[in-house]
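Fold this: Membrane protein
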Amino acid sequence: MTTQLDDRADDRIDPDEVGPPAPGAVASWIVLITGVIGLVAAATLTIERFKLFADPGYRPSCSINPIISCGSVMTTDQAAFFGFPNPIIGIAAFSVAIVAGLLAVARVALPAWFWVGLTAGTGVGLVFIGYLITQSLYRIGALCPYCMVVWVVTPLLFVTAAQLAATALGRRSLIEAAGWLRPLLIIVYAVVVAMIAVRFWSYWSTLI
């Protein structure tokens, strides 16, 4: 028992070594900026979807060609997984991220549980996005530009929130583990880009 307590004590770091629970301007701004970008994309998608509800003949602004087409994606069952347009979830989620980012930029010391909760929430969102990516590529066969914006910002928000949570908890092991997420993030982006390139190569090759 004594050894376990000593190990836990050794794993904790002095808050002065890592700063307050909202450490560093860069991480704080990343949370804020990704939240704003995600909210704009989600809100735009929601507006476009309601325009399409009102007028089935409406051509969304992001329907550019047969492959890059929001209209082809928004009318599918996958685009309303819970019975209502998916972007509505994004509006709520990214609004929380914006509030967190504003507080972090203002150097307000948020409790560890808040960052853990944000990490968990964005983690669930990341899994959902993974599902939507595969559906978009292999079932629907079209890409939604605004959706892809969300694909980009959500993983970055998750990684940043995880690092903030690890720092707020003050566990050296968690901070070290969170440090591996950024290299993993680059790999994830590369894999998704490769999947898009391969899936629609027959179309991309006509543009070369």
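The radius of gyration is 20 Å. The chain has ten helices and no strands.
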